[in-house]
Write a sequence for this structure.
């Protein structure tokens, strides 16, 4: 592969033979942790299909007619096949990725899969725990805002940013455990938001650029707004589970949750957990146990009125502060 660029993302160096807009450049020359080869396939490209083993298939209730995602498995690695024709081959050790797509899709379309499910799974193959969470920095410690799709992770992270706090990651938060502490790792310097989130955070609708021509999600560049992106790892201090919005008089509210409940919630909201086998799940459980023991664990209930998201930020800050 003739690499043309190297990027720093999730604490790793990603080397690529195509430019990937929106990713931070790697600040130093170092060996690649993950190598992306676009427009080619590995020598074992047909092996996952020949093996006849399906690791994952999108459930029928969520699926498009030809399946939204099917992941085939073989000894050499995995094939991610999306309904729009985008395909990724991921080596069994997670260190090499090959990507192909069909016009009119673009590199930007491919990259939306790459920095989410594909790199999330590649890291899980390497034993790295990733949460379905955005992360911000409060009082020198990372706060992971955890929850399923549409829980408000990106919007809440944007509200923290508008209040002057640094954003560390969006939607996927990778964690590194060095034995002494657990750190949250930086992703990229923008938030991926829907139009409704743009309206809540900026008061505009459709003014932000699309992430790709074929997708209505928008790129909210933090530094363009004078907001802050933290590009170095930060010790994890708290995990906040975002609950359903509520209009009662107690919301927005933040309260502690028991470690056992937090363990279950974290396992349910670990990234790419639908692709884990038994051995990977055992590694995950050990990592979550460490995380539960060493972090502040909270549940946040946002108010149904989005204009009150600033109050939610204030209450989370109060709950995680010494």
């Amino acid at each position: 592969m003739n690499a043309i660029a190297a990027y720093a993302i999730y604490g790793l160096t990603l080397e690529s033979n195509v430019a990937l807009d929106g990713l931070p450049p790697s600040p130093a020359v170092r060996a690649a942790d993950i190598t992306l080869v676009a427009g080619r396939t590995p020598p074992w490209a047909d092996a996952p299909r020949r093996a006849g083993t399906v690791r994952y298939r999108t459930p029928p209730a969520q699926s498009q007619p030809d399946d939204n995602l099917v992941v085939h498995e073989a000894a050499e690695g995995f094939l991610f096949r999306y309904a729009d024709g985008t395909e990724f081959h991921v080596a069994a050790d997670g260190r090499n990725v090959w990507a192909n797509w069909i016009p009119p899709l673009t590199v930007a379309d491919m990259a939306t899969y790459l920095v989410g499910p594909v790199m999330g799974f590649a890291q899980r193959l390497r034993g790295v725990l990733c949460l379905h969470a955005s992360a911000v920095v409060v009082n020198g410690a990372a706060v992971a805002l955890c929850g399923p799709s549409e829980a408000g992770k990106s919007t809440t992270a944007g509200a923290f940013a508008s209040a002057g706090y640094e954003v560390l990651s969006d939607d996927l938060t990778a964690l590194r455990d060095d034995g002494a502490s657990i750190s949250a790792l930086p992703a990229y310097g923008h938030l991926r938001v829907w139009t409704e989130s743009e309206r809540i955070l900026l008061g505009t609708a459709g003014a932000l650029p699309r992430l790709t021509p074929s997708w209505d999600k928008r790129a909210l560049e933090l530094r363009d707004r004078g907001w802050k992106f933290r590009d170095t790892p930060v010790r994890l201090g708290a995990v906040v589970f975002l609950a359903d919005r509520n209009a009662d008089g107690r919301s927005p509210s933040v309260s502690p949750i028991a470690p056992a409940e937090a363990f279950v919630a974290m396992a349910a909201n670990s990234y790419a957990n639908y692709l884990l086998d038994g051995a990977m799940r055992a590694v995950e459980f050990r990592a979550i146990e460490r995380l539960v023991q060493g972090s502040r664990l909270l549940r946040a209930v946002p108010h149904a009125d989005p204009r009150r998201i600033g109050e939610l930020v204030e209450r989370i800050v109060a709950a995680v502060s010494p």
Residues 129-320 form a domain with the Rossmann fold fold (CATH 3.40.50.300).
